[in-house]
Amino acid sequence: MAVIREKQGAAHTRIMGVGGYVPSRVVTNDEVITWIDSSDEWIRTRSGIAERRWGTPEETVLEMSVQSAGKALAAAGISGDQLGAIIVSTVSHFHQTPALACLVADRLGTNGAAYDISAGCAGFCYGVAQASDMVKAGSAEYVLVIGVERLSDLTDIHDRGTAFIFGDGAGAVVIGPSDTPGIGPVVWGAEGDKYDTITQTFAWNDKPEAEDGSDEVRGPFLRMEGQAVFRWASYQMAEVSLKALAEAGITASDLDAFIPHQANNRITDRLVKVLGLPEEVPVARTIAEYGNNSAATIPLAMERMLADGTAPSGGLALLIGFGAGLVYAAQVVALP
Q1: How far apart are CA 254 and CA 277, in angstroms?
Q2: Phi and psi for 192 in degrees, rounded to 5?
Q3: Active site residues per annotation
Q4: CA distances from 290 to 36, 47, 286 (A)
Q5: Residue whose C-alpha is closest to residue 335's, from 240, 243, 271, 258
Q6: DSSP helix/strand/coil, 152
Q7: Bridge partners, residue 27, by sequence
Q8: pLDDT tens across 3-39, in order?
Q9: Torsion sign, CA atoms 121, 328, 93, 115
Q10: Is the pTM higher than 0.90?
Q11: In b/e form, how buried is each residue of 114-150, taking b as 16+ CB within 10 angstroms?
Q12: CA atoms of 149 and 170, how far apart (whole Å)
């Protein structure tokens, strides 16, 4: 009986390059409070956000993806036609099919596999895990992972609970083979019983009647049970972070950077405390300028910290993403 031949990939993987793109329009808290009953001080205190970036009509999820991908490819020294796969994490590409990744592949000149994933704010870390496994399995030599969102399209500017939170942007990394371990084991999962904690107001095929009886229906928009999400992220994600360190065989004192999803500065503070992170370890705080742009927050923060010298190239960073689902993923990586 014939035996199926298997492919063997690289023994280890690493992030080879990172790139990001943030839109040109700056939306300050002063603008936000013209929509809702709030204040700049309240927003900063509750979330850490001072401003966020919203895309112009020309700054589509495709254009932001291509821009961030171009930077990541250049940093990695890889061309588009060398990519074996493209993974795009997004919840704001409003065509159910075909995938945004296919459009990105066409723009970059690759014929490799291309698909989207919907894992909310954990999507980038999900993509990194999948890409690393692909390279190790021999399915692809180089994989591009993109996190991109235009959450401004899903934001109800009159909802006091969410109007100030979300932003737009894109971040990308190239993952390829390495002589030494550069991406640690992923710790990931989902708590589907909390499905309704972060969701959109109605399904695309379930358009409700307008409240005023007209033909105009606003939305769908994102809705969030803020306190429930805060409690879940502050406590359960601390345990996930500790487990990711343990799986990688390192301690918090070994880290050169902590790059959590930029959901809320108070959540980040809690994670830092539980991890016992030394004061000298830099912590991503890009939420102050970019807001929460979901799957894009971690790669954007990574790019910023490397560009300004906050985190060292080759240093170890703990990544953790968490959000709608509720889903989560964390891993330790060597920075490109």
Answers
A1: 10
A2: -65, -20
A3: 121, 261, 292
A4: 19, 12, 6
A5: 258
A6: helix
A7: 52
A8: 999 899 999 999 999 999 999 999 999 999 999 999 9
A9: positive
A10: yes
A11: bebbebbbbbbbbbbbbbbbbbbeebbbbbbbbbbbb
A12: 6
pLDDT digits (tens, 9 = 90+) for 66-91: 999 999 999 999 999 999 999 999 99
Which amino acid, one-letter code, is at 176?
G
317 beta partners: 257, 333
DSSP alpha helix (H) spans, the chain: 29-32, 40-47, 61-76, 100-108, 123-137, 226-248, 265-275, 287-290, 297-307
CB 70 within 8 A of CB 83: no
Return the closest-CA partner of residue 20 out of 81, 74, 65, 50.
65
Tokens of 92: 């704001």
Structure tokens at 299: 């790669």
Tokens of 220: 């769908």
Closest CA to 170 of 327, 53, 31: 53
